[in-house]
Amino acid sequence: MSSAHDDSQSSFTRRDFVRYSTLTASALAVTNMPVMARQDAGTSETIKVGLIGCGGRGTGAAHNALEAHQDVQIVAMADAFSDRLNSSRKSIADHTSGRGHVKEARCYTGFDAYRNLLNDDVDVVILATPPHFRPMQFEAAVNAGKHVFMEKPAAVDPTGVRQVIKAAKKARGDNLSVVAGTQRRHERCYLDAMNRIQRGDIGDVNSGRVYWNMGGLWVRQPQEEWSDMEWQLRNWLYFTWLSGDHIVEQHVHNLDVANWVMGGTPVRCMGMGGRQVRTGEEYGHIFDHFAVDYEYPNGRHVMSMCRQTDGCASRVEEAFHGSDGRCLLRSGFAQIAGDKPWQFSGANTNPYVQEHRNLIASIRGQGPYLNEGQRVAESTLTAIMGRMSAYTGKEVSWDQAMNSQLDLAPAVYEFGDIEVPAVATPGRTPLI
């Protein structure tokens, strides 16, 4: 057998993906239910992990899972492209003591690679493909009886958000553990600060500011041998149907913290943004900056700002103001000023590893049951509604966003021609 099972010329529609998810519920519910069920998990049992999405984040997540517990073993891998899978496979094997050596027969490529992996003997799946595929793959994983670690964001459009919420409810009913890649929820300094905020150390929270302002990220130039679809998949950051735009793909971290502090989701938002610096063909059609005013219940507001522009000031943090003080948060740092001043000074374990430790504890019944599916879906929709407002120039309510019929899926999943949508124009792009 070749180094990867290659179905890269297969084509599927979104309906095909959904249909498969339904079929796996009946076909795999009995044969592939995980042995790591919470009620009977043993402490010495191997935790067999399948990696779906072998890019940088997927490879990193696999390393994190292996570091989290000595019983973890990566046993199967899936990706659209064999070169990405093989690179990831080598990286994982080179940095582990046998627990990351994946057999060639358990490597799958193509659009249907995840389906083959879900038919394999795995207990947990890591979902780290471009975010567009998250809803369908999460639903299929739950229907196949797998515990899930899924990277953020949960979706790129409201259609996908609703799909994730539905699957998360099924996961809860089936006692499947789900952890999302919003690692701040597992970081000690954030947890300690949140405990203090929730007990009233800054008084009643009335406003906040959240930022992810940074320089540019990697970009892939189109190649003659690549179809339009292959180029977009390999350059996925710059196409809204794949990434959700950077307000969704990246800034969701900060917006998740805003929802955490505010105790729920916003009721409406007004946003703006544009594409001023990254205007070349290689940058697809996404914006390079956004600013959104989110209104939460009781007239509270959070100002959101994100930018990916070289040569500009950087800021990645969250700040919240209360009646008796204020709190400033960023990775590895937490500080409260006001009537009850405090600064985090304890041990801050790697949150990218800790989230996998917490997932394993949930699976084994050795910690609280975790199902973060709906929560990350709601934080994802918070980011999506900000993008919808900025793209159209319209005010967008939570109910409008949740019930929107916007569906960014292509007509068919195949390696061929696919157009790049026009850059959104506020005041002209319709709100769907």
Explained architecture:
The chain has 432 residues and is an alpha/beta fold. The protein folds into 2 domains: 5-183, Rossmann fold (3-Layer(aba) Sandwich); 185-348 and 376-403, Dihydrodipicolinate Reductase, domain 2 (2-Layer Sandwich), CATH 3.30.360. Helix content is 34%, strand content 21%. The chain has 14 helices and 16 strands. It has a 9-stranded mixed beta sheet with strand order 15-14-13-12-8-11-10-9-16. Helix 6 (158-173) packs antiparallel against helix 13. It is globular, with a radius of gyration of 21 Å. It starts with a strand and ends in a 29-residue tail after the last helix.
What's the total helix number? 14
| Assigned CATH superfamily of the largest domain | Dihydrodipicolinate Reductase, domain 2
What proportion strand? 15-25%
Strand order in space, largest sheet: 15-14-13-12-8-11-10-9-16
Query: What low-confidence regions span 5 or more consecutive residues with pLDDT below 50?
Result: 1-43
Rounded Rg: 21 Å
Report the strand count. Answer: 16
Give the N-terminus to C-terminus distance in angstroms.
47 Å
What is the structure about, briefly put?
The chain is an alpha/beta fold. The protein is built from 14 helices and 16 strands.
Topology, element by element:
Blueprint (H helix, E strand, L loop, with lengths): L4 E3 L6 H14 L19 E6 L3 H13 L3 E8 L2 H13 L12 E4 L2 H6 L5 E4 L6 H10 L3 E4 L7 H16 L4 E3 L7 H11 L6 E10 L13 H7 L5 H4 L2 H4 L2 H11 L5 E7 L14 E8 L3 E9 L6 E8 L2 E6 L2 E6 L3 E2 L7 H13 L9 H20 L3 E2 H6 L29
Helix pairs in contact: 1-5, 2-3, 2-12, 5-6, 6-13, 11-13
